[in-house]
Amino acid sequence: MNMDVVIGTVMFVLGAVFGSAVTALSWRLPRGQSWARGRSRCPACGLALGPLELVPLASWLLSRGRCRSCSTPIAVRYPLIELSCALWAVLAVGKLGLVFALAPVLLWGWILVTLTVIDFDFQLLPDSLTFTGTLLAVAAALLGPGARHALLGMIVGSGYLWVFAWAWKTFLKREGLGGGDIKLAAMFGALVGPTGAFLTITLAALAGSIAGAWMITRGKGGMRTELPFGTFLSPAAMLIYLWGDRLANAYLGLIPH
């Protein structure tokens, strides 16, 4: 069997396993529960889940997305989280190969998935996650592009959002961004660098604008509707890390010379 296929399969399984941990972390952390202790349970009937019900992706498919005890539907978000983490592992190893920087990059991406889910549900970006993610990003940068890359990325990312938040509050007299978004910008900026940080925020702002416009047209919000920006920043950072160079070159190609 081709070694690339073997590595990709192993990374997919590893990512799915960590994705299962991400589902538990994203559920328990914002609710003040320990994510490391206690068995997973059905949120509807409280049934403690056994090993066969905790197999990433497969358990949800075999149970047809329902609890075996109360038949309550299990949200499709859970296998999607596991799949996202599995795909991140495959794409990250495809980009980097089996190098020392791979470990912190993998964990950095899985934390971003966790932040996406928590911010979507609670409009909250826990400091414990953004701080840990920043340390991982710096570690990965030191094993790759270097300290200057990480420092400039953090300054550009967090500085860009800080100026935006200041301007929004000063001129529109209301909060535009929370401190968690600024800390998140430092987290992804440390790994994607200054150009990547700028592209991440631009891509997230574009996606957020499209989502906001869609909500308005569907009658689900107004011009003052607040959207959790971290939900757009986190996946945008992952996309920019993987394909930022191509996107930057495509953007520059649109500019007349």
Outline the structure in words.
The protein has helices spanning 3-28, 58-62, 77-96, 102-122, 127-142, 147-172, 179-217, 230-253. It is an all-alpha fold and 257 residues long. It folds into 2 domains: 1-98, no CATH class; 99-257, no CATH class. The termini are far apart. The longest helix is centred in the C-terminal third of the chain and has 39 residues, at 179-217. Helices cover 69% and strands 0% of the residues.
The largest β sheet comes out as: none
Q: What would the average pLDDT be, to the nearest integer?
A: 87
Rg, Cα atoms, Å: 19 Å
| Beta-strand fraction estimate | under 5%
Architecture blueprint of SSEs:
Blueprint: H1 3-28, H2 58-62, H3 77-96, H4 102-122, H5 127-142, H6 147-172, H7 179-217, H8 230-253
Summarize the structure in short.
This protein is mostly helical and 257 residues long. It has helices at residues 3-28, 58-62, 77-96, 102-122, 127-142, 147-172, 179-217, 230-253. It folds into two domains: 1-98, no CATH class; 99-257, no CATH class.
Task: Tag the structure with descriptive keywords.
2 domains; mainly alpha; 257 residues
